């Protein structure tokens, strides 16, 4: 899996988890959804993505021939 796809998958999972926690625990979990959305938006403009840095350190995307936009 490429790093870019892993970041998108991670963001999607975090949004789904926060929606579930909002319904089951507390409406304050919407803040997690807002945080994920903000990070996606700022990374689109700046190219800085903390999730990509963490996933790269964990070995995601190594050996991929396709270039990744996250640096």
From TrEMBL:
<feature type="domain" description="Inner membrane protein YgaP-like transmembrane">
    <location>
        <begin position="2"/>
        <end position="56"/>
    </location>
</feature>
<keyword id="KW-0812">Transmembrane</keyword>
<feature type="transmembrane region" description="Helical">
    <location>
        <begin position="7"/>
        <end position="25"/>
    </location>
</feature>
<feature type="transmembrane region" description="Helical">
    <location>
        <begin position="31"/>
        <end position="55"/>
    </location>
</feature>
<dbReference type="Pfam" id="PF11127">
    <property type="entry name" value="YgaP-like_TM"/>
</dbReference>
<keyword id="KW-0472">Membrane</keyword>
<dbReference type="InterPro" id="IPR021309">
    <property type="entry name" value="YgaP-like_TM"/>
</dbReference>
<keyword id="KW-1133">Transmembrane helix</keyword>
<protein>
    <submittedName>
        <fullName>Membrane protein</fullName>
    </submittedName>
</protein>
